[in-house]
């Protein structure tokens, strides 16, 4: 790395000159093994949640007002790529934001609140995808929400590591879909969100229901599945 670093810096500076871009010296760090970038810790290990952001969530007391609920969920949304099944876990808290819902902090809300805090006591480290290896998408579809994790195996093929977590609450209309339609909807949504990864890799889909098999077995798709 010591021999490559000057060459990399030279190319970067030439690129900046070419496009007449300027850097703020106070925000530049060179020759380090880790650093903060867009609110995350980036290192040779991967991408990690900023401990300060986790600490801020851990120290929060149970929300008592709608504003506090939105503030809590907003903090989680910022680091949602690190949280497995965030939407399903926080479902009781999300319900408090419904217009027809009373803002009563229930036992289920407290359990969800405590569960997220416990999860964030050891947040995962997300690894960058490696070239030449397929990605694995684990897709989970529930009645009211979906969740997925994009992962990849290591060189030995015996260990998997996470690259990105996603979750989504179905809209009122989507929640009335059949399970197959929900699965196709979830797959289409996840593929759009993870497009930058999937374009450069073969991706294996692991799901309870196989929407790909259904799509290829149908001579002609119709309706919303065809649109997706």
How does this model look, in words?
With 228 residues, this protein is of the alpha+beta class. The chain contains 10 helices and 7 strands. Strand 4 and strand 5 form a beta hairpin. The longest helix is centred in the first third of the chain and has 15 residues, at 4-18. It is globular and about 60 Å long. 17% of the residues are buried. This is Reverse transcriptase/retrotransposon-derived protein RNase H-like domain-containing protein. Pfam families: RT_RNaseH_2 (PF17919). Residues 105-202 form the Reverse transcriptase/retrotransposon-derived protein RNase H-like domain.
User: Which regions are unreliable across 5 or more consecutive residues at pLDDT < 50?
Assistant: none
- Based on CA atoms alone, the radius of gyration comes out at 21 Å
CATH architecture identity of the largest domain: Roll
Residues in helix, %: 25-40%
**CATH top level of the largest domain?**
Alpha Beta
Query: How many β strands by DSSP?
Result: 7
CATH topology of the largest domain: Ubiquitin-like (UB roll)
Secondary-structure element pattern, one letter each: HEEEHHHHHEEEHHEHH
**Arithmetic mean pLDDT:** 88
Q: Biggest β-sheet, characterized?
A: 4 strands, mixed
Structural class per helix/strand content? alpha+beta
- Domain count, please report it: 2
Approximately what portion of the residues adopt beta-strand conformation?
15-25%
Task: Record the strand order, biggest sheet.
Answer: 6-5-4-7
Morphology: globular
Helical segment count: 10
Distance from first to last alpha carbon: 45 Å
């Amino acid at each position: 790395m010591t021999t490559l670093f000057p060459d990399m810096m030279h190319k970067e500076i030439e690129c900046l000159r070419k496009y007449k871009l300027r850097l703020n010296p106070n925000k530049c760090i060179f020759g380090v093994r880790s650093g903060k970038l867009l609110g995350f810790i980036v290192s040779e290990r991967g991408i990690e949640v900023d401990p300060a952001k986790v600490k801020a969530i851990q120290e929060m007391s149970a929300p008592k007002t709608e504003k506090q609920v939105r503030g809590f969920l907003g903090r989680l949304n910022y680091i949602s790529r690190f949280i497995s099944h965030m939407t399903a876990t926080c479902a009781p808290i999300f319900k408090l934001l419904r217009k027809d819902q009373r803002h009563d902090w229930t036992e289920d809300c407290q359990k969800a609140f405590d569960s997220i805090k416990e999860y964030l006591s050891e947040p995962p480290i997300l690894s960058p995808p490696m070239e030449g290896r397929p990605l694995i998408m684990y897709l989970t579809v529930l009645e009211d929400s979906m969740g997925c994790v994009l992962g990849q195996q290591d060189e030995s093929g015996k260990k998997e590591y996470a690259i990105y977590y996603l979750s989504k609450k179905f809209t009122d209309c989507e929640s009335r879909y059949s399970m197959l339609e929900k699965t196709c909807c979830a797959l289409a949504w996840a593929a759009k969100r993870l497009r930058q990864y999937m374009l450069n890799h073969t991706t294996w889909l692991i799901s309870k229901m196989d929407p790909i098999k259904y799509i290829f077995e149908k001579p002609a798709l119709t309706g919303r599945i065809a649109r997706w």
